[in-house]
Design goal:
mainly alpha, 12 helices, 2 domains, about 220 residues, single chain, about 60% helix
Length: about 220
C-alpha cells in the first residue's frame, strides 16, 4: 500500500492538481467576480461588503462602458432586497417553448400556459429573471443587468464545448459524411437543443412550412 501510494496515487493526484491549476489559475480574478454575482453569496456580500478589487474583470468584458463603483453599489442594493424578491419566483413560469428573444435576447417571456419549472433562486439565471420580470433592468439596475448577461454567456468550463464535439461525431457519421456545413449546423442545433425541439408543436411547423416556398404552399395549403 505504501508503494502504491508513492508510485501511483500521489503522482496521479499531483498531475490532477497541476492540471487544474494550469487551466483555471489564469482566470482566478474572473472566477472571483463570478462568485460575487452568485445569489447564494448575497448574504455574505451584504454583511461583509464587496472587496475593492472585485468586479473589475467583469466590467472589462461588458461591451458598453461601465463604472465599477456603480456596479458594486447596484450589486449591494440588489443583494439587500433579493431575499424579498426571491419569494416571487414561485409565481413565475418558465418553459423552453415560451422563451423568446425579448429585448436584446437575454431574458425569457412568461405565460400562464407555460410548463411549470421550479426555479432555485440561488443562481445567476434566477437573478436575471427577477431583474427582467420587475423591469429593474431598464433604469435601476441596468449596469447589474449587463453584468449578468455577460456571465450567463461565459463558458466557465469546456464541458459544453466537448459535448458539442461529441454530438458532432454522432451526427456526421460515415453515412452522413457528405453533409454540407449549413445542414450540419442545423442538425447540431437540433441535437443540442432537444428541449426546445420537443416543445414545438408539429402543427406550427406545418403551418410555417408553406411560407418558405411557393411549391410547398401549393401542396400544403
Amino acid at each position: 500500500m505504501t508503494l502504491f501510494r508513492k508510485h501511483v496515487y500521489n503522482p496521479i493526484l499531483d498531475q490532477v492538481i497541476g492540471s487544474l491549476k494550469e487551466r483555471f489559475s489564469a482566470y482566478r480574478t474572473l472566477y472571483a467576480d463570478l462568485s460575487c454575482l452568485d445569489p447564494s453569496r448575497f448574504g455574505t456580500l451584504v454583511s461583509d461588503g464587496i472587496p475593492d478589487s472585485a468586479l473589475s474583470k467583469i466590467c472589462s468584458l461588458i461591451p458598453c462602458s461601465v463604472d465599477v463603483s456603480q456596479l458594486r453599489e447596484d450589486l449591494v442594493a440588489f443583494a439587500t432586497i433579493y431575499p424579498e424578491l426571491k419569494g416571487s419566483l414561485s409565481s413565475m413560469y418558465y418553459s423552453a417553448a415560451t422563451e423568446s428573444d425579448a429585448d436584446d435576447g437575454a431574458a425569457a417571456s412568461y405565460s400562464e400556459d407555460a410548463v411549470r419549472k421550479e426555479l432555485c433562486g440561488n443562481c445567476p439565471s434566477c437573478a436575471i429573471r427577477i431583474l427582467h420580470n420587475y423591469r429593474m433592468h431598464e433604469k435601476s439596475f441596468d449596469t447589474l443587468y449587463q453584468a449578468y448577461k455577460v456571465i450567463l454567456t461565459l463558458s466557465v468550463t469546456q464541458v459544453h464545448c466537448e459535448r458539442c464535439f461529441s454530438k458532432l461525431k454522432i451526427i456526421k457519421s460515415r453515412l452522413r459524411s457528405t453533409l454540407t456545413a449549413d445542414h450540419l449546423e442545423s442538425f447540431v442545433l437540433l441535437s443540442m437543443e432537444q428541449n426546445l425541439l420537443n416543445a414545438i408543436d408539429n402543427e406550427d411547423i406545418i403551418n410555417k412550412l408553406p411560407c418558405t416556398s411557393l411549391q410547398y404552399r401549393r401542396l400544403l395549403v
